[in-house]
Specification:
26% of the residues lie in helices and 21% in strands. By secondary structure, the protein is α/β, with parallel strands linked by helices. Strands 5-4-1-6-8-7-9 form a 7-stranded mixed β-sheet, with helices on both faces. It has a two-stranded antiparallel ribbon with strand order 2-3.
Length: 195
């Protein structure tokens, strides 16, 4: 079984009081859009600042919520909590930050299928011009390395250490790297949407 781990425990500190994960796209909060896509593909686990946080109301009933009370200390704490919460039957995990608006259900299904069929160590989406991004699949034998992470660089160190064992696959456009962190990011993104 290969679950999906959505990282949604961050503070939205660059949004100047707004919550980027509750920002709507076509009337639906971005977190709800991604979580709905994820649960349609695989068992889905979602890190949150707490189990009573407003974000939880955006999640489908089948999504598993994981509280990360120390998430403000860096993404590493969300990753560690998320990995520790996965079932023992997980043979790997697909990790996706929850602020990536253009990642689709088909994208998640594609990486899920590749992870099942090829048994890679590390599988990473790229932009169509080859820049590495998300989502990223990690095989189970890498899980213990998440315990060593610290700070806010995510799983960068694990990806670097296993670069030679990484299989890359392209997604159209720049969506493997497009995330929305600031009000200006959101304003620019909305201008690109078709009316």
């Amino acid at each position: 079984m290969i679950p999906i781990l959505l990282l949604a425990a961050g503070r939205s500190s660059r949004m100047r009081g707004a919550d980027k994960l509750l920002e709507p796209i076509d009337g639906v909060p971005i977190l709800q859009r991604l979580a709905t896509s994820a649960v349609a593909v695989a068992p889905t686990f979602v890190t949150l600042p707490s189990l009573t946080h407003t974000r939880r109301s955006c999640l489908p009933e089948s999504a598993h919520s994981i509280a990360v009370p120390n998430a403000d200390r860096g993404m590493a704490f969300s990753l560690r909590a998320g990995i520790q919460a996965l079932p023992e039957t997980a043979t790997g995990v697909i990790i996706l930050p929850a602020d990536m608006p253009d990642i689709t259900q088909n994208d998640l299904a594609q990486i899920h299928g590749l992870a099942q069929s090829d048994s890679p160590t590390l599988l990473r989406a790229t932009t169509d011009d080859g820049k590495p991004g998300h989502p990223i699949y990690f095989a189970r034998h890498l899980f213990a390395q998440f315990d060593q992470l610290s700070g806010d660089r995510g799983a960068f160190e694990i990806c670097q250490n296993h670069a030679a064992e990484t299989t890359f696959f392209p997604l159209n456009g720049q969506r493997a790297r497009l995330d929305l962190d600031t009000p200006e990011d959101w304003d620019s993104y909305r201008k690109t949407l078709k009316p």
